[in-house]
Amino acid sequence: xxxxxxxxxxxxxxxxxxxxxxxxxxxAGKEIKVHTDTSTFDEFHIRGLEATTEIAxxxxxxxGMTVLDLGSGVGGPARTIAAEYGCHVTGIDLVEExxxxxxxxxxxxxxxxxxxxxxxDMTDMPFVDGSYDRAFTMHTQMNVEDKSKLFNEVSRVLxxxxxxxxxxxxxxxxSPLHFPVPWADDPSISFLITPDxxxxxxxxxxxxxxxxxxxxxxSLKWFQIQLELLSSAPKDAPPPLGLxxxxxxxxxxxxxxxxxxxxxxxxxxxxxVYQVRK
Length: 278
Known about the structure:
By secondary structure, this protein is an alpha/beta fold. It has one domain: Vaccinia Virus protein VP39 (Rossmann fold). It is 40% helix and 20% strand. The protein is built from 11 helices and 7 strands. Strand 4 (132-138), helix 7 (147-157) and strand 5 form a beta-alpha-beta unit. Helix 4 packs across helix 5 and helix 9 (216-232) packs antiparallel against helix 11.
């Protein structure tokens, strides 16, 4: 991943992201009191908060568990898990501005004692062996070229018997993809693999499969609903507190392209839970 780090940071980086979000909240007259007040933009993945809850349930989260969120973005899932499941969550993300924004939002919600963020490369993490009960990725692996290295790192930082939950986009049978998409403007930083390749790689790096689901159908339905809402909005009026805050002005084009890719079976959406074997 390291040779692509700069390009990935440039793709996601957005100057003054925190200020942009604060201004949008002020314009909308929105006072954030609970973590769900920000879920329209900080649950930055298909099906949003619903999918985060599914992954948390699949991973069997319990109060007091230590959880690692790999590719934590601006911290939506980490805050959800801390607030709703009583876990202590660490997020790691390559993009410094995401981490800074995540810390600000977490502090505003009074969750600073349960959630922390580190800027860093998830294929070379600054955490000691056996630190976490659970780890998860949500729409993160698309930008990771060396997935074996990622999975070995996840295995290293999990406690014996720990679980790794994932919610990812894989390449479908009808590739290539339509670009741009949220994770890449072109194929240069998009490293999708097939579902079978992903499962095989996890097995090869010491994980035992507990659960596997193809959730492409509900993902497609979610996109259809979201696009209907977008089409009914006034022209040139993006959602006041939507994913456009994170994705910027190209939001609509990228969003529609993911829908096209799903509809044409160029991508698949999967969930899985794996146990580390050590």
